[in-house]
Write the structure tokens for this entry.
Amino acid sequence: ARSPAAHAQLQQFEQAVERAQRELGFAMPSHRLPWTAGHAALDAQTFAEWLNQQVLDDPQLRWYLDYCCRDDYGAGPEAVSAWAGLHYFASRHGFHPPGSDTSEREPVLTWPQGNAFLSEAIAAPLQPQIQRGRTVLHVETGKHEITLRVWNEAAQREERWQCQQLVLATPLFVAQRLLSQAVPALNDAVALQRHAPWLVANLQLKGPMLQGLGVAPSWDNVIYGSQALGYVDAMHQSLKPVSGPTVLSAYWALPQVRRGELLRSDWRHWLTEVLAELTTVHPDLPGLLQQADLVRWGHAMSIPGTGLRGSRALQALRRPQGRIHFAHSDLAGYSVFEEAYTRGCETAVTVAKIASTK
């Protein structure tokens, strides 16, 4: 049971989010609203510092906010900015304490293949123009055109491509490595960035797990107190009347100090860690496991640390840099599909306008 003091803190945080929405304004994509001195003040401090100033120290509230930051940003309140911590709630449906009326919350849409559904729909009408199996090795910016050295994976040979305008929809640190000529704003932005190491484990089960007492499993299941991010059940939305085999996708945003461990340790080490987290609530899971596929991402997400979102470097990169145009969620300072999608659309409009005047 929650104490009156703990419940008061939940209400206090709810009011703080509502005040931020009302007085400063938050949106997704974030650049659709002006960046003000109030936003900059939040961006200059960590979310943990801001929470301490508000005397929001209830353990359950702090764990939940820590989980939200790790889930969306790859790091906890001690690493992300107060702007990012409030943006998580204020740009969406706010914060609502347990038991409050959430009937006005916007619905959530999901697809069996996740965001791949959206990517496939975007790519569908462009199939003739999409060149698969190519790896860009180098980008050379000339006076009249841009030349790309590209490796054709199928033919195992190098190709040279030329264009008048180039959109680099890659993480900024990748763009920095590709470009032959230094872009000062790009170098400054990359120097500010920190990235979260990420582990994804897909666990194929031969049958349904035993269900205990309490709340029934959801599509996305999170274990209170865990440093992992829980798991998604691929068959949760199945219309079959009887539960059967399924795949659990377990996620873990690791502390940056564990990046080396993620690189060096083999799958046995990480599978042991994943199962140790999940068996606290599903002790029968190891006996049901048929196959485990683990993927490690050394630089999975850009962490919105202090000073990143409001930096002059990111602001500059939102404008064309000569013939180069940057289009990636990195330009928003954090990794969310809506930011990447909108940036891509806006960049396409810019390039189309340039092409139409020539």
